[in-house]
Amino acid sequence: MAGVLLWVICPTENASFATSSLLSLVPKSCSQERRYSKVCSRLKFSTGVFATASLSSVVANPPRSSEERVYEVVLKQAALVKEQKKERILDVIAGNDQSESMTRGDLLNEAYNRCGDVCAEYAKTFYLGTLLMTPERRRAVWAIYGVYALAFFQLAMWCRRTDELVDGPNASHITPKALDRWEQRLDDLFEGRPYDMYDAALSITVSKYPVDIQPFKDMINGMRMDLKKSRYKDFDELYLYCYYVAGTVGLMSVPVMGIAPDSKASTESVYNAALALGIANQLTNILRDVGEDARRGRIYLPQDELAQAGLSDEDIFKGKVTDKWRSFMKGQIKRARMFFDEAEKGVAELNAASRWPVWASLLLYKQILDAIEVNDYDNFTKRAYVGKAKKFASLPIAYGRALMLGSSKLAEPARS
C-alpha cells in the first residue's frame, strides 16, 4: 500500500519504474487490437453523473434514474462479451489464437505470485472451501479454477487497492487530484503500460478477457463520492453509490468467471444478476457498519426513508435501538434480501468452475443480515458477523448448489 500511495501522491518521482520489462508482459494479439478499435469507435461509455446539459437537452431527455444509467453500462459490457466471442472464432480460424503464449516467463510468474500473496489474505472463502475436499480433488479443483481464480484475484486486488485509497490507514493523504492520478494509471494499464507488477498482472487479464474500463472508472468515482459526500437523500442516490463501489465488481468479474456454454439466459440478464449481487453485498456492509460509519460522521442510509420512519441523524449518532429503529431496519434488510434473491438467479448461469465461490460468498453475506436480526438490530454497538462454524456449514450447501444445472429463471422466453 505504501507503494500505491507513493505513486498516487508523487507520480513524477516514480515514473521510471514502468520499465520495458513490464511492457513486455502485455500481449498484443490481433483480437485485442480489433476489440479496442471497435469498442472505442462504437461504444462510448459515460455515467453522465457529473455532466452539465443544456436546457434544451434536459427538456428533450428527462432525468433518468440511477438504475437506468447503470443499466446502460450493463448492456454495453454484455455487448463487449458478445463481440469477443465472434473474434475468438475468427482468431481460431485464422490461426491467431495466442491467448496462452504470453502467460509464461519468470517476470510474469513473479507478478502473479505477488497478486496471490495479497489476495490470499482477502479471498479466504475460496481457500477455505478447497480445504473441505480430499487432496486429490482439491488439486483437481485448483487446476480447474486456475485461470478463473488467478484472473479474478487480480481484479479483486485492484479493487482492494482502490478502496484502500479512501478507507485505508493513509486515507487522509488522498485528495481528488490523487484519484485523478490513479485513474490515469488505470488508463495506462488498459493501454498496455503497467506501472508495477500488480498492474502488469491485471493488464494481462484485461487483454485476455472482455473486461471494459468503465466499471473500473466508476469504482474510482465511488471513491471520489466518499471524499465529498456523507449523506444520501434517497435510495436512488444510494443505489448509484452502491453500484460505484460494489456493483462494478460484479461487472468486472463476469467476463472472467464466464457464462456456461449451455446457458439459455441472455448475457444482459447474467450481468444484471451480478450487478444485483454487488448491490446486495454493499447494502449489507452498510447495515452492518451503521455505528462504525456514524462515528466517522457518515450515514449511508436514505435520508427520506429515515424521516418517514420518524428518525433523524441525531438518532443514529445517539446509537439507541428503539422500536422505530427496529421497524426501519426490517425494511432495509428486506430490500437487501430482494437484491440477493435477484442475484441468485444468475449464479447457476456461470461456468461450472466459477459457481461454488460465488454461491459461498452469496450465502455467507446473506447470513450477516441474519446476524443483525439476532443482535436485535443493534448495529450501533454490535458488529454482525458469521462465525467459523456457520461458514464451514455453508460451504457444502454452496458446493451442492454449484453442482446443479443452470437455472431457467433467467432463460429467455421461447419464440413461437
TrEMBL record:
GO terms for molecular function: 15-cis-phytoene synthase activity; squalene synthase [NAD(P)H] activity. Pathway: Carotenoid biosynthesis; phytoene biosynthesis; all-trans-phytoene from geranylgeranyl diphosphate: step 1/1. The chain crosses the membrane at residues 140-159, 238-260. GO terms for biological process: carotenoid biosynthetic process. Keywords: Carotenoid biosynthesis, Isoprene biosynthesis, Membrane, Transferase, Transmembrane, Transmembrane helix. It catalyses: 2 (2E,6E,10E)-geranylgeranyl diphosphate = 15-cis-phytoene + 2 diphosphate. Its EC number is 2.5.1.32. It holds the Pfam family SQS_PSY. GO terms for cellular component: plastid. InterPro entries: Squ/phyt_synthse, Squalene/phytoene_synthase_CS, Trans_IPPS_bact-type, Trans_IPPS_HH. It comes from the Eukaryota. Belongs to the phytoene/squalene synthase family. PANTHER family: BIFUNCTIONAL LYCOPENE CYCLASE/PHYTOENE SYNTHASE. This is 15-cis-phytoene synthase. It comes from Populus tomentosa (Chinese white poplar).
